[in-house]
Amino acid sequence: DTAVSQTPKYLVTQMGNDKSIKCEQNLGHDTMYWYKQDSKKFLKIMFSYNNKELIINETVPNRFSPKSPDKAHLNLHINSLELGDSAVYFCASSQTGGGDTQYFGPGTRLTVL
Amino acid sequence: DAKTTQPPSMDCAEGRAANLPCNHSTISGNEYVYWYRQIHSQGPQYIIHGLKNNETNEMASLIITEDRKSSTLILPHATLRDTAVYYCIVRVAVWTPGNMLTFGGGTRLMVKP
Fold first, then answer.
1. Whether pLDDT at B35 is above 60
2. Radius of gyration (Cα) for chain B, nearest Å?
3. pLDDT tens column, B48-68
4. How far is residue A3's CA from residue A7's CA, in Å, rounded to a whole number?
5. Among A67, A5, A78, A74, residue whose Cα is nearest residue A33
6. What chain B residue is nearest to A52 in terms of C-alpha separation?
7. pLDDT in tens, A36-78
8. Which of B101, B89, B47, B48 is nearest to A92 (CA)?
9. Which of B4, B59, B95 is the best substitution to test chain A (most A C-beta atoms within 10 A)?
10. Cα–Cα distance between A49 and B112 in angstroms, integer?
């Protein structure tokens, strides 16, 4: 069974569209994250979400919004997509008190045309 | 998080030990040393972490100097599948608001036949 899964794996869309990326973890973890990896391969944290507490990296535009229907899911919604949003987005999860080791999903490659 | 310094790239012969260094001279007393790796086109993968004692698991060994200002990740018998970018990160081992996992540039390890 896949521990952290993301859908879709690839997403190609036009500028100005709104899109969502889904993330699910079956590890029973209580904290989930979204990361962005740009073309230069730097991984940057975007959000972390724990017990309904959302921590936002201040550099993330408010067009990005995470939504968590339950502890096992943290979806990423992106409004009014821009060319600069093209990147690979990774979801991750961890368990508080478990050394905070994070487990990552396979990534979603978003291409904005 | 304390900052780390890693060489940008290293080569290793297949079957030999790969020793990846990391400097973290400003590490605090409650900060752990974590290692992750990212194989091409995959999500980052947790390898190992430690506080001050040497650690070993099925993937690797972590050697931390007595003053904790540097560490070495050892892959005892590198294979071609170990070719990846290896990230050394120092942080407290508990999720708290603002305690984000911060990835630097890492070391690109190339295992050669």
1. yes
2. 13
3. 999 998 999 999 999 999 999
4. 13
5. A74
6. B97
7. 998 888 888 898 888 777 877 778 899 999 998 888 999 999 9
8. B101
9. B95
10. 40
